[in-house]
Design a protein that fits this description.
single chain, 464 residues, alpha/beta, TIM Barrel, 3 domains, ten-stranded mixed beta sheet, four-stranded mixed beta sheet, 16 strands, 38% helix, 15% strand, elongated, binds zinc ion, DUF7033
Length: 464
C-alpha cells in the first residue's frame, strides 16, 4: 500500500516500539474524516485522519494519565479504539496527525521568533497546554499499540512490543563554550560588571575577588587553578560513576558570541584526543551563525575532522539556536549524523513530544531528512537561569522527566556546561552536580554517548 510521506514517517517511527508485523500493517487504512468507511465486515485497522487541529484538545486516558490529543472528530468518545465483532479495529481519534504535528515541527510553523531568531517556548503548544514534561507522542504511539495489540489478540496474530533501553538511556553532554576563567578579557569584563555596564554573574564582593585574582594571575603570573579548565575533575567524576559523556566543541567564529578558543589550539586538540581515548565522544558545537550559514558549519565540520582525525558524528548548535529547517538541511548536507539541539531554551522537557531519537522532517519539501535528532531533555540553564527554580527545582524536574522517559525506555539527555559548576555562581553546585549524576545512575540507566544511541536505534530498526 502506498502511504503519503507524512503517514510513512509516523509509521516508521512507530516501529521503534513494536516488532512491526507485515500482515498487520497490510490491514492499516488511513481514512479522511467524513469519507466512507470500508465494508464493516472487512477486518481492517482504521486510522481516521483530520485536517483541523482542535481548539481544545480532547483528553484521553492513556496509561492512566489524561493526555491531550490534538486531532479528533469524535471528541465525545473517550475510549482509544473500538473493536467490533468482525475484528475490525477503529481508532476513535487521530493519533497519526497528532504525532506528525509534533514530531515534524508543524507545531512550530510561526513567523514569531525570539531575539536570537529561535522559536519561543511561549509560542509553543506545550506552553499553552502546560505539558512540557509529557512526551505526548510516546503516549499517542502507546494508544495505537494498545489497539493493535487488541486486534492481534482477536485474530490470533503475534504481537511484540520493544523498547530502546531496558530502563532508560542516560545521555550526558557538555558544551565546551568557555575554558579560561582568568583570561585577560574575562578579567577586564569584571571591571565592566562592577561599573554596572554589564550584568554580574556573582555578587559584588565576589566579582571584586575574581578581578583581584585575575590581576594576580595575569600580571604577576600567580599559578591559580582555572575553574573553567576543570576537565580532569569531570573526567574523573564521570569515570568513577560509569558514565560516558559527549563533549561538543565550539570554534571561535564570532568574537563575542562564540568561544574564545580556536578548534586548532593545541590544548583543545589534546583535550579532544584525551577524551576520545578514554571512550568519551567529541562532537561539534556549531557556532552562533552556523545555524543559518552552510559555509560556516561546513568549515567547522572540516576543521574538526582535521584536528580530531575523524569526522564529527553529532552536533549541537550554540545557544540552542535553530533558525528553521535550514539549520538541519545544512547539517545533513555536510555529513553530520545527529543533532542534539531540540529543547526549549526557556524550559526543559519534550519540545517534539518524544523521548526517542527521531528523523528530522523538512516540511517545505515534504521529505524526511537523513539526520537524526536526539532530543535534548534538559539544559541546566533552563531551570537555573531562565526559570530560576534553583538546584532543588532542577533536581525535582529532572526526576519527573526521567519518570516519564523510564516508562517508555527512552533517552534522558542532559546538558551541563563545564563553565557552570562554580559555587559562587550557583551556591552548592559543586556538591549538587556529583550527587545528581550519582542519583541518576542509581536508577540503573544505560550511560551512552550520542554516537552509541544512533548505533542502538539503527540496530533496533534493522530487526523489524
Ligand atoms: Zn554553547
Amino acid at each position: 500500500m502506498q502511504y503519503s510521506t507524512n503517514i510513512k514517517y509516523v509509521i516508521s517511527h512507530l516501529s521503534f516500539h513494536w516488532e512491526s508485523n507485515d500482515e498487520v500493517v497490510s490491514k492499516f487504512r488511513f481514512v479522511q474524516s467524513n469519507s466512507v468507511l470500508p465494508n464493516i465486515e472487512e477486518p481492517v485497522i482504521i486510522f481516521p485522519l483530520c485536517d483541523e487541529i482542535l481548539e481544545t484538545p480532547v483528553s484521553i486516558n492513556i496509561l492512566e494519565k489524561e493526555i491531550p490529543v490534538l486531532f479528533s472528530d469524535s471528541s465525545k468518545i473517550k475510549s482509544i479504539y473500538s473493536l467490533n465483532k468482525y475484528g475490525q479495529l477503529i481508532f476513535n481519534h487521530d493519533f497519526i496527525t497528532s504525532s506528525f504535528y509534533l514530531l515534524s515541527g508543524v507545531a512550530e510553523q510561526t513567523v514569531k521568533r525570539d531575539q536570537f531568531d529561535r522559536f519561543s517556548y511561549e509560542d509553543s503548544l506545550q506552553y499553552r497546554l502546560d505539558c512540557p514534561d509529557i512526551p505526548l507522542v510516546n503516549y499517542y504511539f502507546e494508544a495505537i499499540l494498545q489497539g493493535v495489540e487488541a486486534y492481534c489478540r482477536f485474530h490470533s496474530l503475534s504481537f511484540k512490543r520493544k523498547r530502546l533501553f531496558e530502563r532508560f538511556g542516560f545521555f550526558l553532554s557538555h558544551d565546551v563554550d568557555r575554558v579560561s576563567f582568568y583570561r585577560p578579557k574575562e578579567v577586564l569584563y569584571k571591571i565592566k560588571q562592577l561599573s554596572g555596564m554589564a550584568p554580574r554573574s556573582f555578587g559584588y564582593g565576589k566579582t571584586i575577588k575574581y578581578l583581584f585574582k585575575g590581576v594576580l594571575k595575569n600580571i604577576f603570573l600567580f599559578s591559580l587553578k582555572d575553574p573553567w579548565w576543570n576537565f580532569d575533575d569531570l573526567i574523573f567524576l564521570e569515570k568513577s560513576l560509569g558514565i560516558k559523556s559527549t563533549w561538543f566543541f565550539l570554534h571561535r567564529d564570532h568574537k563575542n558570541l562564540d568561544s574564545q578558543y580556536e578548534l586548532t589550539d593545541k590544548k583543545i586538540v589534546n583535550l579532544i584526543k584525551r577524551l576520545t581515548e578514554a571512550g568519551f565522544e567529541a562532537g561539534l558545537h556549531g557556532s552562533y551563525y552556523s545555524a543559518n550559514n552552510r559555509n560556516k558549519i561546513k568549515y567547522q565540520f572540516n576543521l574538526f575532522e582535521k584536528i580530531a582525525g575523524r569526522q564529527p558524528v553529532g552536533n549541537r548548535q550554540h545557544f540552542l539556536r535553530v533558525t528553521g529547517i535550514e539549520t538541519f538541511r545544512n547539517q545533513e548536507s555536510v555529513g553530520l549524523i545527529y543533532d542534539n539541539t531540540l529543547s526549549f531554551a526557556e524550559h526543559e522537557g519534550f519540545r517534539n513530544g518524544y523521548c526517542y531519537p527521531f528523523k528530522l522532517y523538512d516540511l517545505e519539501n515534504d521529505r524526511e531528512l537523513d539526520l537524526w535528532e536526539i532530543p535534548l531533555t534538559m539544559m541546566e540553564v533552563s531551570p537555573l537561569n531562565y526559570r530560576k527554580v534553583g538546584l532543588d527545582g532542577l533536581y525535582h524536574s529532572a526526576f519527573k522527566l526521567i519518570e516519564e522517559i523510564e516508562r517508555f525506555g527512552g533517552v534522558f539527555s542532559l546538558l551541563w556546561h563545564n563553565c557552570r559548576l562554580m559555587d559562587d555562581e550557583y551556591p552548592g553546585v559543586s556538591e549538587f552536580y556529583p550527587k545528581l549524576l550519582k542519583d541518576i545512575m542509581s536508577k540503573s540507566p544505560q550511560s551512552v554517548t550520542g554516537e552509541q544511541i544512533i548505533d542502538i536505534i539503527q540496530a533496533s530498526n534493522v530487526i523489524r
